[in-house]
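Figure 3 (text version): structure tokens given as input.
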């Protein structure tokens, strides 16, 4: 068996693994998931933030990703069995969202957007669950504090006497579980103290770590712009140089040429010809309607500045397509360029993009942030007496059941999409609650609002065709289909 394997390797079945002339300069080091990342993580984070501060494409791409991932917020819908408890729970959580931020600047949904932005910008973000005193006046004695990646030093490695290991600032026990994070008390880039003596140990149950693992065993996150940082840096310089060239070229309106004088008097102090009156003026100011008189022998040549290269738009488009692919954003969304894109093609592109967004919503925002916050909040709500939950310690899972609902996607074709939803509900392929959830709303809240509208209409003796108790409207597609069936064939 070993002879066969050696023969296969020697024959280089995989041409990409060979050492031919074409692949001789290909450097591919063998590194683990953490060694490859943490060695240059600081440089990646700093360059990513610099690009987002200064590069309009980087800033626009990040803003649009955050807007699509979070929008107005990923909101919970309790699925507890008791209707009374569920409504009380929803009301209490809504009141707490205004108090959730330990810095007092955002509500919980604003923190979601900031967490998503920080995670994409630096590859990760930490959230500390801050327990508060009953006298602090909070609805539930809990707040969330968002901390940037620098709070946990990625270059801090150590082996502890109890058998635990610290890797990239994260303390792991003997079986590799996270038990603590070693954190600075303040942002290290805002203060002069950078040594590890300023670190303090925070138990893992008080810290949430939001990042997207790209390799098994990866401990820290990778900035979103990692693959395109160098490209965007050089593209920005190229675009700026092209703009500067055009600006300089257009500063010159024209040039005046005159014959060389036979005898030219020179200023002994400056070494330049002596100019008398208006003769020998090197440049003539140009205004609309100007008629300039030239001296005998003088000629004027107008400047014809070169324009941008004819392939400049195509080149920029190609580079931006590579940038969009690198950050997982459709080129049309990043650039706003819809030239030559049909509705059908745009639907395919957006559907593919939405799958990626839903992946980030579920795996990072919901699983790493929303669910742990919900569980800790519910525990403290019951312990503090803000919420009455009989037998909570015996059946936590019954009380904790929740569905997180992101902001709904707008319909691309409102009439057709709504007709499709109606047919799916009538055909039993979907529930009304699911359709409402896809639009980012709570079905129970919608039902309560409809019931309130119906009661008010009955009290005022009003009738609307939207009231299903009065009439059942037929969808346009159904009416058209019935008309077609009744119409005789020619």
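Below: residues designed for each position.
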């Amino acid at each position: 068996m070993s002879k066969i394997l050696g023969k296969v390797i020697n024959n280089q079945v995989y041409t990409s693994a060979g050492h031919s002339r074409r692949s001789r300069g290909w450097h591919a080091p063998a590194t683990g998931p953490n060694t490859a990342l943490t060695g240059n993580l600081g440089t990646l984070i700093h360059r990513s933030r610099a690009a987002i501060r200064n590069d309009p494409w980087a800033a626009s791409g990040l803003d649009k990703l955050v807007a699509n991932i979070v929008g107005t917020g990923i909101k919970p819908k309790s699925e507890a069995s008791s209707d009374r408890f569920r409504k009380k729970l929803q009301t209490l959580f809504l009141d707490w969202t205004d108090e959730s931020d330990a810095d007092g600047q955002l509500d919980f949904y604003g923190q979601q957007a900031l967490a998503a932005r920080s995670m994409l910008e630096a590859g990760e973000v930490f959230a500390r669950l801050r327990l508060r005193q009953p006298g602090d006046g909070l609805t539930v004695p809990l707040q969330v504090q968002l901390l940037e990646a620098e709070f946990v030093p990625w270059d801090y490695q150590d082996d502890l006497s109890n058998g635990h290991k610290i890797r990239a600032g994260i303390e792991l026990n003997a079986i590799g579980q996270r038990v603590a994070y070693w954190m600075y008390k303040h942002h290290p880039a805002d203060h002069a103290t950078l040594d590890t003596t300023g670190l303090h140990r925070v138990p893992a149950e008080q810290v949430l770590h939001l990042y997207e693992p790209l390799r098994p065993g990866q401990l820290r996150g990778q900035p979103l712009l990692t693959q395109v940082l160098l490209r965007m840096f050089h593209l920005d310089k190229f675009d700026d140089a092209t703009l500067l060239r055009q600006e300089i070229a257009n500063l010159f309106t024209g040039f005046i040429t005159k014959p060389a004088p036979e005898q030219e008097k020179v200023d002994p102090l400056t070494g330049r010809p002596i100019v008398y009156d208006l003769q020998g003026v090197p440049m003539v100011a140009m205004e609309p309607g100007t008629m300039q008189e030239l001296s005998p022998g003088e000629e004027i040549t107008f400047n014809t500045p070169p324009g941008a290269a004819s392939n400049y738009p195509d080149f920029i488009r190609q580079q931006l397509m590579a940038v969009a692919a690198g950050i997982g954003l459709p080129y049309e969304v990043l650039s706003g360029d819809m030239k030559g894109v049909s509705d059908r093609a745009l639907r395919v592109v957006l559907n593919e993009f939405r799958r990626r967004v839903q992946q980030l919503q579920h795996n990072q925002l919901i699983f790493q942030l929303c669910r742990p916050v919900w569980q800790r909040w519910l525990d403290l709500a019951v312990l503090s007496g803000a919420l009455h939950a009989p037998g909570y310690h015996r059946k936590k899972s019954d009380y904790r059941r929740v569905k997180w609902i992101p902001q709904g996607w707008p319909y691309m074709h409102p009439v057709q999409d709504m007709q499709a939803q109606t047919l799916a509900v009538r055909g039993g392929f979907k529930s009304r609650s699911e359709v409402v959830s896809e639009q980012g709303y709570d079905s129970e809240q919608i039902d309560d609002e409809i019931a309130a509208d119906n009661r008010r209409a009955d009290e005022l003796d009003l009738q609307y065709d939207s009231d299903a108790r009065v009439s059942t409207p037929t969808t346009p597609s159904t009416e058209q289909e019935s008309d077609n069936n009744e119409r005789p064939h020619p």
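The longest strand covers residues 124-131.
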